[in-house]
Amino acid sequence: MAFACAIMIFYASLLEGWLAGMEKNAVGMDLGEFQIHGRGYRADPDLYKIITEEGGVLAQLDRQGFVAAPRLHASGLAAAGNASSGIELRGVDLVREGLVTALNQHVWQGQWLAENDQAGVVVGRKLARILGLAVGDEVVVVAQAADGSTANELFRVRGILKSVSEGVDRSGFLMTAATFRRLMIVPQGVQQIVVKRQVPSENLDQATSRLSRLLPNYEVRNWRQLQPVLARLFEMSDISLVIMLLITYAAVGILTLNALLMSVFERIPEFGVMKALGFSPWGLFAMIVVESMLQVTVAVVLAVAVGLPLSFYFSHHPIDFSGFVQSSSTIAGIAFDPKWYCVVTVNSVVLPILFLYLVAGLAILYPALKAAMLKPLAAIYHR
């Protein structure tokens, strides 16, 4: 019992860590906790569907305790040598972007964008491979500007991102906001504002409602609405933990039942004497249950003594799967972190313990009832 409970505490902590890493990669790396768009932009992304008063919107968000970063978006074509590929141009506010996401810290090769390098761009990892680009290489971009003219310019690859998400990896083409406005002739407005809570403990749905009331003329979506597959994956995590607990503890329950039955059969004469001396059936039942629960409690103490230090150790020294998976692997379109950390939470410790008590309690019922129903005379002479 102690071994099984310790393993389940470690497994639950590892699962919590994996989910925390997935959420960090999805939300903190690029997506943001909330996104604000002009009406109809998400259904039909268009260079002209902009948030016109972005300065006022950003000021409102700042006053309400949110951190926000504006983004500019457009589609285009990039070419290098004999290769070409469709791209998603993104204009980045270098001051605000780092306050909302950690994309600027996720550069694989080269450097992040800089205001004094208007010709420098950062591209997704898969896009760099498709176009055969390395840091310092030149790439041509062709797109339709906001005034209907053809935007055509030569850029230099300043940096290549690590794996972020399927979209960014495959078509991400990042530049400074000033460069984007000059290239695409967009003097004002933005297509997207990415928002983060200053107080992470604030309920996500309540914060979404607060943002919607604050900005009724725009579309406000939280990351769960933007990534429903990933949100569903997180919701299913507790169910997967419960299933694993049931499978593991089913074996524990069978072993416990067998051990308790053997214990009852060995002490049948003793139980017969106790009942002959006036010990009630329910008193005998309670004695066996309490005795067994004490054994379970000892097992829980041992499990916590082993499982918690093990989980805390791996919270600082991750299990590294880098040798077994590609660094560009994704799950539900989000980058998969090959390093798994444990995250010890109340849920990861309490749930395995509660299930152990539940399974052990169910396993105890039959032996305890069997002992309570013994006939004193037959039990005394039992061989």
List descriptors.
383 residues; alpha+beta; 6-stranded mixed β-barrel; 2 domains
Task: Figure out the total of helices.
Answer: 13
Using DSSP, what is the number of strands? 14
**Biggest sheet architecture:** 6 strands, mixed, barrel
* Count of separate structural domains: 2
Helical amount: 40-55%
Helix/strand/pairing category: alpha+beta
Could you give the order of the helices and strands?
A: HEHEEHEEHEEHEHEHEHHHHEEEEHH
Segments where pLDDT lies below 50 for 5+ residues?
A: none
Topology, pairings included?
Blueprint: H1 2-31, E1 34-37, H2 54-63, E2 66-80, E3 83-92, H3 94-100, E4 107-110, E5 120-123, H4 125-131, E6 138-144, E7 150-161, H5 166-171, E8 172-176, H6 177-184, E9 192-197, H7 204-214, E10 219-222, H8 223-226, H9 228-266, H10 268-276, H11 281-316, E11 319-320, E12 330-331, E13 334-335, E14 339-340, H12 346-372, H13 376-380
